[in-house]
Specification:
Largest sheet: 5 strands, mixed
Radius of gyration: 14 Å
Distance between the termini: 32 Å
Helix content: 25-40%
Number of domains: 1
Amino acid sequence: MLFTGALVSLASCTLGNAQTMGDKAERMSTVAPELISLYDEYSSYLTSHSAKPFRPANPLVRVIDSRVVVDTVASGEVNALKTDLVSLGMQKAVAFGRVVSGELPIAAIPRWRRCRV
């Protein structure tokens, strides 16, 4: 079984600087808890300067190099969501129906801010 995290539930989101946002829970309010945990694990891994490849604790989270495979669901314009994700560095982004899938850099997870309605 392949785990894919639902990153957001709305179509178009604004990007923000993590240093200017509120506390961690607020700035990651649109991000699945599994992705928040993954980001925390990855940050610790980078700090440790380990020579071993990064492996997430959750075996259902699919990581390729420094990117996580995610599915996102748009409630509005799917192409706006795809554009936002690509601007965050998503690779292999594809849209089908209301879903955008691709490989999002783990480091980009906190840059996803509140979504516009």
